[in-house]
Amino acid sequence: MFRFLNTSQQQLLPLQKLCLGILLTCGLQSLSHATVGGKQYIEILGYEAKDQKLYFLRHTEDASGRLPQLYYFDFQSKTPEKEVEVKSIYPQSKTGEIDHFSDGSDVAFERALKQITRRLDRLYPINPDIFKINIKKQDTVQVPAWADATQTVAEYRYEYNVENRNYHSSTQKAVSYAPELNVKQAFRIPKQDRIIVTVEYLGFPDETMYTDEDAVILSKH
Q1: Which of 11, 127, 157, 172 gives a 20 to 30 Å CA spacing to 24?
Q2: pLDDT on residue 37
C-alpha cells in the first residue's frame, strides 16, 4: 500500500536533505581538522644572502589538510638559532585569524611561496653521519597511551646538542616516544660559518611510528 505525501511534507524533503548535507560537511571538516597523528618532516628551501635568512618548510602528514608551515632563521638577529614563523603568506579568516588549512584552492599561497624560493641559494648537502648527538639531560615518564588512556607509554624528554669536530649547536629540547634521536639531514650554508641539521625522533605515542623532525643550527666552536 502506497503512502502519499501531502504538499507541505514534499516541500520539507529538500530542506531536510540540505540540512543533512550541511551537517555531514561540517562534521567531516571538523573531523579532518581534529585528526591527530601523522609524520612531520623538514624541507630545507635555501638561503637568502641579502637578508641572511635561511628558509625551511615543516610538513605535516596528518590528513588534516594543513598547509606546510614556513619558517626562517635570521642570522642578523641576536638569536640566529631561533626559528621564526612566517604568517604573511597564509590566507586569513573573516575574523582576521591565520588559516593554516587548505581549502583546495591554494594558488595565492603557492604563488607567495614561489616568490620567496626564487631568491634563495641552494645549500650544500653533507653527510649527516659525521654529527653526534650529546644527551645533556634525559627524563623518562609514563604517560597515558593515545589509543587507550588506561594504558601508559614511556615518554622520553631530552635536552641535547648536536656537534662534530668543528661545529656545535645550542641546547635543544625534544619529546620522543622511543629512546632515540637521529641526525637525518645536514647542509652547509653558503657565505656563513654555520651548518643546519635536522633531528628526527618518534613524536607520536602510537604503533604507527609517526616521526617528528626539528631544524637545528650549528656554529663554529
Answers
A1: 11
A2: 62
Q: Does one domain contain both 81 and 133?
A: no
Range of the domain at 188: 125-220
Helix (H/G/I), strand (E/B), else coil: 67: coil
Is residue 9 exposed (0-12), middle (13-18) or buried (19+ Cβ within 10 Å)?
A: exposed
Residue 36 one-letter amino acid: V
Within-domain flag for 23: no
Do residues 186 and 125 make contact, with C-beta atoms less than 8 angstroms apart? Answer: yes
Pair 86, 157 in one domain: no
What is the arithmetic mean of pLDDT over 89-118? 77
Say which amino acid occupies 59. H
* Number of neighbours of residue 213 by Cβ within 10 angstroms: 19
Q: Using only the alpha carbons of the chain, give its radius of gyration.
A: 24
Total length of the chain: 221
Give the model's pLDDT for residue 29: 43
Place of cell 611510528: 209
Rounded CA separation 103/19 (Å): 21
| Domain final position from 122, 148, 170 | 122
Q: Please tell me the pTM assigned to this model.
A: 0.79
Average pLDDT over residues 50-59: 98
pLDDT, one tens digit per residue, over 22-32 is 444 444 444 33
